[in-house]
Design a protein that fits this description.
Blueprint: E1 2-7, E2 15-17, H1 22-31, E3 35-37, E4 39-43, H2 49-60, E5 64-68, E6 71-75, H3 86-91, H4 99-106, E7 108-112, H5 125-133, E8 137-141, E9 144-148, E10 158-160, H6 166-176, E11 182-186, H7 192-203, E12 208-209, E13 215-219, E14 224-225, E15 228-230, H8 235-248, E16 252-255, H9 263-271, E17 275-278, E18 282-286, E19 297-300, H10 311-318, E20 324-329, H11 337-344, E21 348-352, E22 355-359, E23 368-370, H12 374-386, E24 390-394, H13 396-402, H14 406-412, E25 416-421, H15 422-434
Helix pairs in contact: 1-2, 1-7, 4-6, 5-6, 6-7, 8-12, 10-12, 11-12, 12-13
The chain binds ligand EPZ.
Length: 438
């Protein structure tokens, strides 16, 4: 089994560059299937399990997909299927956003319903509500949703989202690109990743206005073509490094971070006593005195409020804060599974409803802990860097879904962290034994 081994207590120093945003590149790869001609080149694509998964999904329906260093080249002219493999789609919720592009371009799509996710039930009712408003029929058949547009194609509609769902906004926006007439999405998700998606769609010849606001207008066009696009930096990765730098760093500089995308985190870190310098090419964070944040009350909510994807990392940072802190998780029902793992390290946290109450302790102590989702994994790594002694983090596949070379980046900041694959370690010992130097 592969695990991370962290020797805590060393301060992080130096510069680290964040990769392209996972949650932008995933819908962008899905959107590339809208192009009936021409090549798309997407730059600054992170090397992540989820990205490989989405590349496999669009390749499986006939697109040609090639990764060349940090770029992905896609030609969607040759797509011959609107039914991506059930197992591929079911395994990653984000794959569901291939529904909108395929329905819009081909008039039909059969997409596996997303599997249960360990951060709470995550339905797709708002996605389907949007497709039906544009004239599609939807039926559930053997775990997949079968979508069928009218023979004359989808038509524009005014759609109100009960929840500003990121995925539903993306799926409906893409379905509307080749529909007849104008679609208006109200109470749309305003995340920067959706703005990035809209910019790529417009480069492909779509007509999308208002992305990043509550109301998005899409005027359907006849066809779309490939386009070049550079993905925005990953604001959640940037926030993860800034948080680590605030508690265990000494002037860490996060290159390529965009402060406008994480104003809520920056405000909270300054409230907790950290000093943030906003530079043209990145952000520097100076730690609070003695590495202990001042206590905070944090509430996650939809963008631009404090992001749920930085909740676990903030819980970790507040475990050694002065006084009592609270973090309320309003987006997902079950996103505190990292708390039990942090308690193994001496954190004093209890949950009341959807709020974690954290009594700050002097320090954490290293332990063997297991990641339960990708952001929980990042939180455990931060805790391991903060703790006294050695921490082992298991469940690395969660971390590899969303962090490109996290160990290498932290090592470049001076962290004593390494990945060990028990098989490798076993092999190395056997080799050493055989050569007599064991
Ligand atoms: C996106 O997920 C992100 N994933 C998540 O990041 C992020 O936590 C989430 O948005 C919220 O910001 C990607 O972009 C790939 P939602 P998504 O639809 O689109 C409910 C990470 O760590 N809902 O905004 O699935 C849903 O149950 C991941 O990178 C409905 O009820 O999130 C949830 O409670 C984790 N019906 C809430 O809305 C629907 O039809 C927000 O979900 C759709 C959603």
């Amino acid at each position: 089994m592969t695990r991370m081994i962290i020797e805590g207590g060393r301060r992080l120093e130096g510069r680290v560059r964040v990769s392209g945003a996972k949650n932008a590149v995933l819908p962008i790869l899905a959107a590339s299937t809208l192009a009936s001609s021409g090549l798309s080149t997407i730059d600054d694509v992170p090397d992540l399990l989820d990205v490989a998964h989405m590349m496999d999904t669009v390749a499986a329906i006939g697109a040609t997909v090639r990764r060349a260093n940090g770029s992905v080249r896609i030609n969607a002219e040759s797509i011959w299927s609107t039914e991506p493999p059930y197992d591929l789609v079911r395994r990653m919720r984000a794959s569901f956003v291939v529904a909108g592009p395929l329905l819009s371009r081909f008039g039909t799509a059969t997409i596996a319903l997303p599997g249960g996710c360990n951060i709470g039930p995550r339905p797709v009712d708002l996605h389907i509500k949007g497709f039906e408003a544009m004239g599609a029929t939807a039926s559930i058949d053997s775990g997949a949703v079968r979508l069928q547009a009218p023979k004359e194609g989808l038509h524009g509609a005014r759609i109100y989202l009960d929840i500003p769902s990121v995925g539903a906004t993306q799926n409906i926006m893409m379905a509307a690109c080749l529909a007849n007439g104008q679609t208006i999405i109200e109470n749309a998700a305003k995340e920067p990743e959706n703005v990035d998606l809209a910019n790529y769609l417009n480069a492909m010849g779509a007509h999308v206005r208002g992305a990043g606001t509550d109301t998005i207008r899409i005027d359907g066009v006849k066809s779309m073509h490939g386009a070049n696009h550079t993905v925005i930096p990953d604001r959640i990765e940037a926030g993860t490094f800034l948080l680590a730098g605030a508690v265990i760093g000494n002037g860490v500089y996060v290159e390529n971070a965009v402060s406008e995308h994480i104003m809520s985190l920056i405000a909270k870190l300054e409230e907790a006593g950290a000093k943030i310098e906003d530079h043209v090419s990145g952000i520097r964070v100076w730690p609070v005195e003695r590495g202990r944040l001042r206590n905070l009350d944090v509430k996650t909510h939809y963008y631009p409020a404090y992001p749920t994807d930085l909740q676990a990392q903030m819980v970790a940072g507040l475990t050694t804060a002065f006084g009592t802190s609270t973090i309320s998780e309003t987006v997902f029902e079950n996103r505190f599974m990292h708390v039990a793992e942090l308690q193994r390290m001496g954190a004093e946290i209890h949950i009341e409803g959807r709020t974690a109450i954290i009594n700050g302790t002097e320090r954490l102590s290293g332990a063997t802990v297991t990641a339960t989702d990708l952001r929980a994994g990042a939180a455990l790594v931060i805790a391991g860097l903060m703790a006294e002694g050695q921490t082992e983090v298991l469940g690395l596949h969660h971390i590899d879904r969303g962090y490109d070379n996290l160990v290498g980046k932290l090592q470049s900041l001076g962290a004593r962290i390494r990945r060990v694959d028990d098989d490798d370690e076993g092999t190395a010992r056997a080799l050493l034994k055989r050569t007599g130097s064991m």
